[in-house]
Amino acid sequence: MLDPKGRNRSPGGLTSGHVTSISLDSAAPATLDVDAIVIGVAPSDSGARPAPGSEDLDRALDGQLAEALSALGATGRAGEVTKLPTLGAIPAAVVVAVGLGDSPDAEALRRAAGAGVRALAGTARAAVALPAADAASVEAVALGALLGNYTFGAYRTGEQKSPVEDVRLVHSGAAGAGAEAAVARARTLATAMNLVRDLVNTPPSDLSPEDFAEVATRVAGETGLDVEVLDEKALVDGGYGGIAGVGQGSANPPRLVRLAYTHPEAAKTLALVGKGITFDSGGLSLKPADAMDWMKSDMGGAAAVLGALSAIAELGPKVNVVGYLALAENMPSGTAQRPSDVLRVYGGKTVEVLNTDAEGRLVLADGLVRAGEDDPDLIVDVATLTGAQLVALGTRTAGIMANDDDVREKVVAAAGRAGEQSWGMPLPAELRKGLDSAVADIANISGERWGGMLVAGVFLQEFVPDGVRWAHLDIAGPAFHKGEPYGYTPKGGTGAATRTLVQVAEDLAAGIL
Hints:
- The chain is of the alpha/beta class.
- Helix content is about 30%, strand content about 20%.
- The chain has helices at about 55-60, 65-70, 105-120, 135-150, 180-200, 210-225, 230-240, 240-245, 300-315, 360-370, 385-395, 405-420, 450-460, 500-510; strands at about 20-25, 35-45, 45-50, 80-85, 95-100, 125-130, 165-170, 225-230, 255-260, 270-280, 320-330, 340-345, 350-355, 380-385, 400, 420-425, 440-445, 470-475, 480, 490-495.
- The termini are far apart.
């Protein structure tokens, strides 16, 4: 269907539209009136061993659960999914046994819950009886289940298996009063991450910078965030040469969105800056075709900032948070910026554009300088910035750089507690010389081939205000999963960095950062 602008809008719009009901249940799993039950299994010498939480179910099956799973080839290996029919022994028709591996920590629980629930697509009601002895485990299982149940079907017209409609999280009561709060937190984080996934998965024809700004404005209204949007004229008039320069080649003009969350008891301010290239063709420095088909995900950083702020507004940490979404579409045309053009970014510094496909750092430069005007205690930018990140760290591990070693290590630690893989990387001072320009203050790429992820970080550091702590997250690989689903991670947009940014805000509020 066409929207008022003549674009081919799907009936689902910009969101998947599915909302999963999740609730706590202390009843014995074998008695629950559900269609399926998810349990955990761990490796043992004799095959898969049922994990805590499945004892009642084993009794209902005459103590034959382990034997039956072993007969089906289950090993308990992390991520392994085995389905076992109950043949009427209990109300649930199927038991889904998910491998927890040898050391079932919080991330193992999240992944097991996600894999188990995703395997039940087309099922209306499911119970999840994974080990959940405390509030942290309850949150992990609930979050994994909600994330694993995600689908993006807005553009499909054929019959599809619907996600599970109702998830009951079985717990023993040992988690205490914190269990309800844990589920509520999981629901908030999952909603934020699934928003990010929706945005990343949306075709660029339906997510121009203007469209993205409209979504951000709607989310701000729903969550109580303050919002300001600068259009292309305001960007040029305001001196935002990076965003304006990158966007000038597209028929879809750029935008800069500022979002703000304030807390009356806040003593510190966090500024978040997200790269939002809604499609990256490379510009006149055109990408090859096989590197372009997933470039709708090049706005994953801005999406993560939006998702994080929506969650922060609901969770209410005692910290002020401002977020900048630097939105542009990088296209080749007669009006596009050219290699050798010089841009004047916000604040006045000049940049020689030697490669138009190194555009993310140009829009971030504007955002970083502008964020400094909010007097933040910490600036964190997040971007799908470099192919070099994938070369160095692969598709699942974000690179984290900072202008302060302590900040870098604390952001890495925050990511780990949030359940996201990352690795601290240096910013070697000697790489700055490669960015020298013959005509401007700095060039946007180095004359040397190596260390591209680090060079991009060194470039960005030039635009961080003096005396302000700053961290940079390169999520080029983690933001978009091109392989088959695993754990709670779907194919396509992942929601990468959203939880890390929320954790950073909470750590700053708590005085940890």
